[in-house]
Amino acid sequence: MKIAFVGGTGPAGIGLAARLARAGHSCAIGSRSAERAEEAAAKVRALVPDADVRAAENDAVVSDAEVVFLTVRDDAQRESVRALADGLAGRIVVSMANPLRVDRPRAEAVYLPQPEGSLAEEVQRDAPGARVVSAFHEIRVSRFSKLDLPIDADTIVCGDDDEAKKIVMQLSRDAGVNPVDGGELLCARYVEAFVAVLIAINFRYKASVSYRITGLPESRA
Ligand SMILES: NC(=O)c1ccc[n+]([C@@H]2O[C@H](COP(=O)([O-])OP(=O)(O)OC[C@H]3O[C@@H](n4cnc5c(N)ncnc54)[C@H](OP(=O)(O)O)[C@@H]3O)[C@@H](O)[C@H]2O)c1
Question: Closest Cα to atom 13, ligand 1: which residue?
């Protein structure tokens, strides 16, 4: 598939692009700066030498994509989506942002309540034509670029467009993360908030934890 990464110059964009390019997808790294996008694309090529990856400014990568991953900083997602809303119409848009602030002295992450319920639902409000899917909130993004290491984790995938959700679930498998259908987009608010608990666990155990959903039938795909 043709996949774009808005703000794809951080660890989430570079690592996911590397994993999805390795799986045979065509990837485009977006940025506010074409130069930064090219530097990030070079990092993807360093990880996956035969990667089909290009670089351009955010609006240009979106215009050519079937699936758009929002990999901007969480507090920049609203502004970025509003600026790109017309271009996102009709495309599958993946929201993975967690509205959290880490409070190191308290060894906690503080969840920032969202007026729309979740950042994913806010994307749907601000880009009403987009086919929004929420995924990957629970995965430490630094893991994506460690291509030799398996990602021992599930991700709960939420969305109101069943076909879009199925496509994102397959992309998740392609990236090495097992997806679990978590229902409607409304459920994204609970997933985004629960990441604060994972971070609290990480502080206490000096770890980098994820979770697995158990008890599913064998034919769960
Ligand atoms: N940390 C984790 O382990 C984790 C886990 C799950 C989900 N997430 C989510 O994954 C997303 C990406 O994480 P990341 O660590 O890769 O992000 P990041 O490195 O903090 O930021 C990614 C890119 O966002 C762009 N950006 C920054 N400020 C901006 C602004 N004011 N306006 C527009 N773009 C701006 C920058 O791209 P340019 O300067 O090139 O435009 C930057 O390189 C976040 O939303 C985060 O909540 C993180």
Answer: 12
Distance 51 CA to ligand 1 centre (A): 22
Atom nearest to 14 CA in ligand 1? 16
| Position in ligand 1 atom list of the atom nearest CA 119 | 45
- Position 157, amino acid: V
Give the whole-angstrom CA distance, residue 97 versus residue 118.
Answer: 9
- Compute the distance from residue 185 Cα to the ligand 1 centre, in Å: 21
Reported as a single tens digit per residue, the pLDDT across 73-115 is 999 999 999 999 999 999 999 999 999 999 999 999 999 999 9
Of 150, 127, 124, 126, whose CA–CA distance to 139 is shortest? 150
